[in-house]
Amino acid sequence: MATPHTLRAWEHDAVARIEADFQRSADTHLIALPLPGFARHSIDLYLKDESTHPTGSLKHRLARSLFLYALCNGWLREGSAVVEASSGSTAVSEAYFARLLGLPFVAVMPRSTSPEKITQIEFYGGRCHLVDSAAQVYDEARRIAADTGGHYMDQFTYAERATDWRGNNNIAQSMFQQMAHERHAVPRWVVVGAGTGGTSATIGRYIRYQRQATQLCVADPQGSVFSAYHASGDASLTGPGSRIEGIGRPRVEPSFIRALVDRMMVVSDVDSVAAMRVLSGLLGRRVGPSTGTNFTAMLALACEMRERGEQGAILSLLCDAGERYLPTYHDAAWVQQHMGDCSAAQQRMAALAG
Length: 354
Description:
Oligomer: single chain
Radius of gyration: 20 Å
Helix content: 40-55%
Structural class: alpha/beta
Number of strands: 10
Strand content: 5-15%
Mean pLDDT: 94
Shape: globular
């Protein structure tokens, strides 16, 4: 029988493994995106490239924080299963950390999740449990955790509290430190999407804690409920959900902190895909659809700043690489079937980007 001493020894080893993994990783790159039509007006655009994490996405940071939070709360035990409700990227990253600790992992995901993400989860030893809709993932994850005696990680509740928003090399601190040597050292806007809402909460709190003048914009895909909730404050609202993987939700998630967001911008599916294609061309490599959602909002804000004669920087995230979406969002026939014709939107985005 395990004793308190042996349980604590396992926890200490688990935390040490995660911290060692963190120390092996350099910070992600800040990419300057020079667009002449804005640069000549002293408006600069930047992307923090989160695709370079070991598991290939922004969610690597969240998964690390969630595991440390669960360990330090005494919720994880040696051999216990870890269960998560996820549309893909968080599950990929959590599967990585579960393997690091020798724990079984189950991801509860919609059937529409890209095959590439499912393959990655299985590569790290995780098991994928598919459900028909995004709204079903929560209860099914709780059920599996209860049936197996495991722990439901529940990113949608704990994302906003698992990360130390005051610093400790969180994403906000990293962004502002990297911007310090640019001509506009303090961004005028930071643009992010919202899945759990944890990233926007961390950045919004950090901006206030550091007393910065930066404003936070959340780019919300069509079908997501967050924009309506931001406007009304009604947490009981529901919606159809998003068709842009990884962001936008059919319900208001506990980790989405409405008061921290200065502006919501609803982005259509065709604009997200069109901007994804344009940005992929500008960078010379494919990006994912949620990055396209971010880029749409960045261009809109840059146009507004130019019209008002304002100068400054707009900073956002390159959330993950486009190789995860080759048979879906980067496939013209799939996009035509699921999103419609994006050609006009793509021409418009290309013109905005110059």
